Amino acid sequence: THTHTHTASSKHHHQEQQINMSELPDCFYPSHPILICPNSPTPNHSLYLSNLDDQKFLRFSIKYLYIFKKSISIDTLKCSLSRVLVDYYPLAGRLRTSPEHDQKLEVDCNGEGAVFAEAFMDFTADEFLEFSRKPNKSLRKLLYRPVEAHSFLDIPPLLVQVTNLSCGGMILCTAINHCLCDGIGTSEFLHAWAHFTTNPTTTDLPITPFHSRHVLKPRNPPPVSFSHPGFTKTTPKDHSQMDLDLNQYLQSQPLVPTSLTFTPSHILHLKRQCVPSLKCTTFEVLASHTWRSWVKSLDLPHALNVKLLFSVNIRERLQPKIPQGYYGNGFVLGCAVATVKELVNANLRQGVKLVQHAKSSLTDDYVKSIIDLLKDKTVKTDLSTSLVISQWSKLGLENLDFGEGKPLHMGPLTSDVYCLFLPVMDDFDAVRVLVSVPESVADKFEYYMKDFSNSEDNGDANGHCGEENGLICE
Questions:
Q1: Candidates 108, 376, 401, 443; catalytic one
Q2: Is 389 within a domain?
Q3: Torsion over CA of 197, 202, 204 and 207, rounded to 10 degrees?
Q4: Which residue, among 345, 384, 469, 414, has the nearest Cα to 24 in the 3D structure?
Q5: Which keywords does this Swiss-Prot/TrEMBL entry list (predicted)?
């Protein structure tokens, strides 16, 4: 697997290259994966999925990878999983097409169970931490894939693989269907599983899951009352329009993962370019900086409209508020739009303003209008010239504890063209930015990401501060 690495020490670089060039050893499976069912009877019915849940854009599984220093007994994990599936019983069901509409999905809550695979790998946690500094395609072997699953609907909503390591540590990989849960939902589910693992006799969860998706039903008739630049309608292509589908181009290129860790001092450095005239959050300033760096590195036509799409939690934005414990998709994508020229020539502050405007426009009415809009199944998220950012930091995912301490590492199983803002172990205020970019522009992208100068003063990106500013580029 080609990986993109920069390190200060050449000796360290050589060791890392050796590990990076290699594949992970194979997993040994002592037995066939099994289905874990809820340990007591659960409701048997169809669960309606909202228009936010079953978007085409979300028809995949969210795949997490955790490394723990000390393993938990497999039987304990199976037992607590069967217990938590009583509370989260739709995750033990199966997705299917709705009888009302062939483009709509629902969950058959039939208690069939979650897939649980047990494996062993002759590798240590320390070796793994070194190896996983960069996403590597061979990490995929840490998550069992059902052989009989030929389509998205065939894959059970929850898959788990626990891989014990030769040092006594363990790797936990989970695949949770995005149509059933968003990031907040997956975090609540995993913490509930950990809660029953560490408190086997308890009957209560800190947060009770709320199953019904009817709180996000479209209005009848659906009065779409706003324009929604984050979406497009699938119509036969008009070839007179010379549309540049950037997303298609990116997917066709050899991609390499880039991973950059921003410490609180780096983030402060970026924020200082916005104050005193503009107060902003870490997410706003880092999203704007990443978007601008990405656009600059791709060398796009100046007149092209580019978009930044980013997930925004709507649980508190709707009236009435979505009930606590709602683990379905309670987010929409904020959409910032600018031409390449506007974005590249302006300063960071202008980009931040665009992100803030996109966030503040997501009012109760606007979000309800999106839900109404999505009733039309020819409407889809406009990925054609968009960078998509999903925030995994600040969800508590890195605090998961099954009784032997918090993880040594938490991250995705793979990297792709969607950009992830990831938590950094032991530094709540740091953010790791992970995104795959075309191999041909990876150096340029990292250069712009590490350029903390204010382009307003310095012209375009000539204040490069690579290792001297301490930015950790893996």
A1: 401
A2: yes
A3: -30
A4: 414
A5: Acyltransferase, Transferase
Tell whether 168 and 261 lie within a shared domain.
Answer: no
380 within 8 A of 56, measured Cβ to Cβ: yes
Structure-block tokens of residue 49: 């999925």
**Distance from C-alpha of 442 to C-alpha of 258, rounded to nearest angstrom:** 7
Residues 106 and 249 in one domain: no
The helix (run of H) or strand (run of E) holding residue 266 is helix 264-271
Tell me which of 127-136, 179-188, 410-419, 421-430 is least confident: 127-136
Domain that holds residue 38: 23-212
- Please give the Cα distance from 344 to 348 (Å, whole number): 9
Looking at every residue in the chain, the average pLDDT score rounds to: 87
- In a domain, residue 236? The reply is no
Q: Give the end of a domain, one of 212, 233, 263.
A: 212
Preceding peptide of 276 cis, ω within 30°: yes
Query: Count of CB atoms within 10 A of residue 247's CB?
Result: 16
Q: Specify whether 384 is located in the same domain as 427.
A: yes
pLDDT (0 to 100) of residue 235: 62
139 and 252 together in one domain: no
Q: How many domains does the chain have?
A: 2
Give yes or no: 204 in active site: no
Asked whether the predicted pLDDT for residue 90 surpasses 70, the reply is yes
- Whether 2 is in a domain gets the answer no
Same domain, 187 and 330: no
Q: Quote the Cα angle for 360-361-364, to 5°.
A: 100
Q: Is the pLDDT of residue 466 over 90?
A: no
Residue with tokens 């050893």: 25
Is 126 marked active-site?
no
Three-state SS at 62: strand
Residues 190 and 58 in one domain: yes
Q: Active site residue: 178, 195, 211, 289, which one?
A: 178
**CATH code, domain with 348:** 3.30.559.10
Measured in degrees and rounded to the nearest 5, phi and psi for residue 127 equal -60, -40
**Rounded CA gap, 139 and 412, in Å?**
10
Q: State pLDDT tens for residues 283-316.
A: 999 999 999 999 999 999 999 999 999 999 999 9
Residue 149: is its pLDDT beyond 80?
Answer: no
pLDDT of amino acid 241: 38
Q: Is there a domain that residue 41 lies in? A: yes
Residue matched to tokens 């723990």: 68
- Give the closest residue to 328 by CA, choosing from 412, 207, 193, 215: 215
